[in-house]
Design a protein that fits this description.
Structural class: alpha/beta
Helix content: 25-40%
Radius of gyration: 21 Å
Distance between the termini: 35 Å
Number of helices: 12
Largest sheet: 7 strands, mixed
Number of strands: 11
């Protein structure tokens, strides 16, 4: 773990009425949490906060399945959260009885990944799709056709992620194939589409996406809305496409792993992160939308300056697939990269 803060830094807070001595071990998406919020929480509750990061839901799931992770809170996406509930890897902490529950926007409460909202409080949500460098490509972007069946302008200048999750789902959106289908014939259509696209693909990589796009090494890349917004904020000439077929959605939520050593501090942290002031700060830092009630006047990203965060096309949330369906997804990806 990377220790960001130490106990000695918070001695000055001992007079605080809201003390909670001890530690808090956070396992979250790398660079997803506003560092100043970590410092604020540590001071306010006199807690040593340790933050460790992961770059895929699979990494988090593997660690929790191994047991005794030592983490107090984690931040899985919805389809992996469902798996963690079903496998008994996370605690029912009565999230729907917390004040944090009242701060969840109505449309994000009690969804299929946590129907009773007992296991999770959401932190952020967004979409995945394709982004173009507008200095390298000035063609249409209103259909996934331009990404999966590129014209000459994009041949050899396309990059995808290194794993299948949102890629296969987006191909399914384009083809009209249901997410998590167990029909091998339907998945053959997905494989055929990706294989036909392959000669036009320069890279299957999840690393250095901003550099690859910004330098013009590729003209389009599969990416996420928030990362695109942040890159645009630094001057990158990027556009997040709004294809008529739709975008793949995700939502990350706070959970408490079984055996969490600092349960009380985990609850306090989840409550803290859901407060409107802090949820606003988190959204302004992470550049992904908040499913919590935020202070509208303090939002950094609006429809006007960050349209990528406000989709104008349908968004379909990634699903939790059956083992049979997931096996088909893995086979498609394995065959594609051979």
């Amino acid at each position: 773990m990377k220790k960001l803060l130490t106990g000695t830094a918070f001695v000055i807070c001992l007079a605080s009425p809201a003390l909670a001595e001890g530690s808090l071990n956070i396992y979250a998406w790398s660079e997803s949490i506003e560092p100043q919020l970590i410092e604020k929480f540590a001071k306010e509750y006199d807690v040593d906060v340790n933050v460790d990061g992961y770059t895929s839901n699979e990494d988090l799931l593997t660690k929790l399945q191994a047991g005794s992770s030592g983490y107090d809170v984690a931040l899985p996406s919805q389809h992996f959260l469902r798996i963690m509930i079903d496998e008994g890897l996370i605690q029912n902490y009565g999230a729907n009885k917390l004040k944090a529950y009242e701060n969840i926007q109505e449309r994000w409460r009690n969804q299929w990944w946590d129907e009773t909202q007992e296991y999770s409080i959401p932190n952020s949500y967004g979409t995945a799709g394709f982004v173009v460098n507008t200095k390298e490509y000035d063609g249409p972007t209103d259909s996934l056709k331009y990404f999966f069946e590129p014209n000459d302008a994009l041949k050899g200048r396309i990059a995808l992620l290194s794993y299948p999750d949102e890629i296969v789902s987006t191909a399914q959106l384009y083809l009209g194939v249901p997410f998590c289908t167990e029909d091998a014939t339907e998945m053959k259509k997905v494989l055929d589409l990706l294989m036909a696209q392959k000669p036009a693909v320069a890279a299957y990589s999840s690393d250095n996406i901003e550099g690859r796009l910004g330098s013009g090494e590729v003209a389009t890349h599969f990416w996420w809305d928030g990362e695109t917004v942040r890159a645009i904020g630094t001057g990158a000439p990027l556009e997040y496409a709004m294809p008529k077929e739709g975008l793949v959605g995700w939502i990350d939520s706070w959970v408490i792993p079984k055996g969490a050593p600092n349960y009380d501090n985990a609850i306090k942290f989840i409550e803290f992160m859901s407060e409107p002031e802090n949820a606003t700060a988190e959204m302004n830092y992470y550049a992904h939308s908040s499913p919590l009630k935020v202070i509208e006047a303090d939002k950094k990203y609006t429809k006007e300056n960050a349209p990528a965060l406000y989709p104008t096309v349908p968004v379909e949330m990634a699903r939790t697939c059956s083992p049979k369906a997931q096996d088909l997804v893995n086979k498609v990806w394995t065959q594609l990269l051979q």
